[in-house]
Design goal:
By secondary structure, the protein is an alpha+beta fold. 31% of the residues lie in helices and 22% in strands.
């Protein structure tokens, strides 16, 4: 995945945010060639993220690798998670 931020960010800061994000498992140890693989994310709800690095062509660009169980984390689980979030955050749904 490639993303562009409004200003340049440090990879360490991005890793820190990803590590604390709900629904995300950070697997990122490039010195030891540890990064997410599809087999690791099978039968799991989280999206696995790794290979977080600066884009060489864009100072505000970040590239990262994502894996996830597309059947499990597809529309059904996303719909449940969105509904749970709305129920928690918006009291008018109750």
């Amino acid at each position: 995945m490639w993303l562009e931020t409004e200003k340049p960010l440090e990879v360490a800061d991005i890793r820190r945010v990803l590590a604390s994000a709900p629904g995300v498992t950070l697997v990122d140890d490039p010195q030891n060639y540890v990064y997410p693989m599809p087999l690791e994310s099978a039968d799991k709800d989280d999206v696995y993220v790794g290979r977080v690095r600066k884009d060489l062509a864009d100072d505000n660009g970040i590239t990262l690798w994502l894996t996830g169980d597309q059947i499990r984390k597809g529309a059904a689980l996303n719909a449940v998670q969105i509904a749970e979030y709305l129920l928690k955050e918006d009291k008018s749904f109750k």
